[in-house]
């Protein structure tokens, strides 16, 4: 029974945590590119292409890590830092 919980928690962490972290990184990346002078439409297109790779890497990392706690902590840290930096960059 404990093995099923371990696998289930990794799946939830990889899918949900990876999604939230990837979307936070996307928001930061797009905000940074807009602030640096790129068009918004091009920024969103480039960001969406990049976030597929980031999401895939986060999912692979969540399943390949030997312990789940550092993965969970770093995904939460990605989300907090990315959203905080996005807010600090301000409205465009």
UniProtKB/TrEMBL annotation:
The chain crosses the membrane at residues 12-34, 43-62, 68-89. It comes from the Bacteria. Keywords: Membrane, Transmembrane, Transmembrane helix. This is Iron transporter. It comes from Acetobacter suratthaniensis.
């Amino acid at each position: 029974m404990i093995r099923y919980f371990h696998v289930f928690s990794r799946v939830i962490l990889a899918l949900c945590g990876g999604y939230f972290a990837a979307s936070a990184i996307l928001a930061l990346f797009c905000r940074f590119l807009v602030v640096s002078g790129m068009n918004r439409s091009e920024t969103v297109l480039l960001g969406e292409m990049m976030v597929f790779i980031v999401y895939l890497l986060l999912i692979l990392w969540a399943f390949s890590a030997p312990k789940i706690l550092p993965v969970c902590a770093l995904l939460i840290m990605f989300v907090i830092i990315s959203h905080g930096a996005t807010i600090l960059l301000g409205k465009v």
